[in-house]
UniProtKB/TrEMBL annotation:
Gene expressing this chain: ruvC
Reactions mediated catalytically: Endonucleolytic cleavage at a junction such as a reciprocal single-stranded crossover between two homologous DNA duplexes (Holliday junction)
Protein name: Crossover junction endodeoxyribonuclease RuvC
Amino-acid positions noted as binding Mg(2+) 2 in the UniProt annotation, renumbered to this chain: E67
Domain of life: Bacteria
Subcellular location(s) of the protein: Cytoplasm
Entry's Gene Ontology cellular component terms: cytoplasm; Holliday junction resolvase complex
Residues holding Mg(2+) 1: D7, D139
Keyword Cytoplasm: yes
Amino acid sequence: MRILGIDPGLRRTGFGVIAVQGRQLEYIASGTIVVPTDASLSERLKVILDNVREVAAQHQPDHAAVEQVFVNTNPHSTLLLGQARGAALCALADQGLAVSEYTALQIKKNTVGKGHATKEQVQQLVQYLLRLNGTPAPDAADALACAICHAHHLPLTQQLQQQQPTVAKLTRIRGGRLHF
């Protein structure tokens, strides 16, 4: 099974693709989509949309995971980051992928073991976990960490999805209330 991780950004959007076989993680590809800063906002968003769509089409992932937007002290920056993230989400939806979302804290805690890890610590742990010869670029490392986080959450997610039909059979809604 393949997982595509995305670390969205208006200047640089990282992507990382891993394969998961049981508990084994295998590096497939990663990189950084560099967006021209002199282009208009709509052109920059289109670059993100087109490139994420191309990465997804090329690597055919089964799952996608995207880092959630954090609220910055500058609301304008947060809004722009949200738009970049939206372009990436649209590209993934266009490829028919369901997307799981994780906060930076969840990703770092799941990958490094502590939620306030530095960029360098994330890079080093990603390099170690995927047995890479070199240290991945910061944005690519964050995207790979997002994919690794999803790989660790996947067994629980799959169990819940398998149990949903059973839960649905056991429950019914009557008068706006849930009854078992």
